[in-house]
Amino acid sequence: MHIVLITGISGSGKSVALNVLEDAGYYCVDNLPPALLPSLVGTVNAEGTAKLAVAVDARSSESLAGLPADVRKLKNDGHDVTVMFLTANTHSLVARFSETRRSHPLSHELRPGENPAARRTLIECIAEERERLSAIEQLGHVIDTSELSASKLRTWIRELAQIDHAPLTLFFESFAFKLGVPLDADFVFDVRAIPNPYYDLELRPLTGKDAPVIAFLDAQPSAREMLEDIRKFVEKWLPSFKTDNRSYLTVALGCTGGQHRSVYMAERLAAYFAPTERVVLRHREQS
């Protein structure tokens, strides 16, 4: 079984790392007391799980000392174990806790004889956590996330765990403005500026998937120009979204009724990108 053990300083990105592994199909467990690691591995291995990711933090300080021995035993038992230790400088950690307004996990602990009203400061909690984890910092690969964006960290985690990133799925969706803009749209293009087949009585009952409507719009210079502009825009920026580790990108095309122009545009764009990208086409206003 491939086991990824994630540990390190709170606020350094352990949740980001665990989410990456979960998206890659790992069975993930967060905040596991280290003493339970061997039994967890035995249980999930017996169930046929091939990939396990476990996050361990300093709250289980009593059993942290046995973690190196547990890792060695797992390797001796034939498991492929990767250990990641995430850290960051104190300035970055303080800034992150300030942004999220979350308390440090150790701030809820009391030292023996400590007054319950006298909680430790964030700086004190970070220092305490560094001390507790110092013995296991060199257990695996250390990643300093101080100046690392979440996107870059996700990329590094995939590379370290040898995970192939799933290709981005490109959605083209037609819709009617009168019924509202799709909430999942990343980009919305208004195609109501091009001639409307609705005003041709012969074309009105048809949709943008029918040959007469397609021929009508193909003959409109404004429709061709708008289609080309949208295509170039998507083509230009798609690599950036892939680099940003996006799994989905939704391009919504809207017209008045969601039957003719938006459908035509979505169909044309999907056909153009389908040979090279993972494309999903949907028409919201059509059953």
From TrEMBL:
Start and end residues of each RapZ C-terminal domain: 169-286
Domain RapZ-like N-terminal span(s) in chain numbering: 1-160
MF terms in GO: ATP binding; GTP binding
Binding site for ATP: G8, I9, S10, G11, S12, G13, K14, S15
Pfam families: PapZ_C, RapZ-like_N
Keyword line: ATP-binding, GTP-binding, Nucleotide-binding
Residues annotated for GTP binding in this entry: D57, A58, R59, S60
Protein name stated in the entry: RNase adapter RapZ
Source organism per UniProt: Massilia horti
Lineage, opening ranks: Bacteria, Pseudomonadati, Pseudomonadota, Betaproteobacteria, Burkholderiales
